[in-house]
Amino acid sequence: MEKRFSMVLVLLSLLLTPIFANGSQESSSSQEGGKSYRIAFTMALRDQFLSTMENACLAEAKKEGVKVASQDAQQSSNAQLSQVQQFAAQDYDALIVNLVTTDNSQAVLSAAGDMPVVFVNRAPDVDLVKGKQTYVGSDEHKSGAFQAQALAKFFTERNVKTINYVLLQGTLGLQHTTLRTSSVKKGLEDAGFTLNQVYQDTAEYDRAKALNKMQQFIASGKKFDCVICNNDEMALGAIAAMKQAGLDPKEIPVVGIDATAAGLTAMENGELYATVFQDAKGQGEGALKAAMALASGQEIDTYIDIPFQLVDQSNYKNYMK
């Protein structure tokens, strides 16, 4: 984890009294000599990355002696709003939200009422109030920029000036989907490449959907030079489709985002060209610390940055557990 974020966690820790007890998805806790916080957590879904983030949050809660009630909205905005309303009625001290859709931000805040709110991983599309709300996540402009940096290296080494690309997007309507898509294109254009979009569609961050989309596209017979994916899961689906069709991902680079365990294994096998490390553990821990700080009345910043990091063949082993 970057020094900057480590310092943020240290500062947040100093603002809070250490507490000791058990913390889990529905755990109870006790505290000697102080308040035991009750924090609610509503998640968009539990995929590999978000589950890692959730587990980090729960582990930090156990360390701090905080009760966290965590629920999965299963990609339903209505379900998430219902969860928030229930948490508000149960008088939780703070709320952590991993948004189903960005455009639901204001509705979530309204449903939360007086609860302090920490958005994590998926940025809200509303202005936040210092001391009342914050966002813990990463600058999505940089995720696509890192993908562009990796691809620029690949094509520059081969003296390629025009890139015929395939792009698999995540869930439409999410801010990070939009920014990951626009920033990788901008990064390549700024590097002097001419871009030719051969195919672009959404696979909603899902491996199976990406496999299906790529199978259909490959069947069209159109030629392409690379596959850009908004996350590793879709990249792995694209790679599977390419291998089924006899296309070598070592010759047609595929890039993702997240640096998941499966993604890193694909890098080790030479199938995924590059990915971008998104710190799930840092986001989960940071969200819990921020929620505790807001619950205690501290006026922390409205944005806590967890930096992205480029992962390529030169350093991927550093991220493998």
From TrEMBL:
Periplasmic binding protein domain boundaries: 46-299
Gene3D superfamilies: 3.40.50.2300
GO annotations of cellular component type: cell envelope
Spans traversing the lipid bilayer: none
GO molecular function, one term: carbohydrate binding
UniProt keyword terms in alphabetical order: Signal
Domain of life: Bacteria
Localization annotation: Cell envelope
Pfam families on file: Peripla_BP_4 (PF13407)
Signal peptide: 1-21
PANTHER family: D-ALLOSE-BINDING PERIPLASMIC PROTEIN-RELATED
Family note: Belongs to the bacterial solute-binding protein 2 family.
Protein name per Swiss-Prot or TrEMBL: Periplasmic binding protein/LacI transcriptional regulator
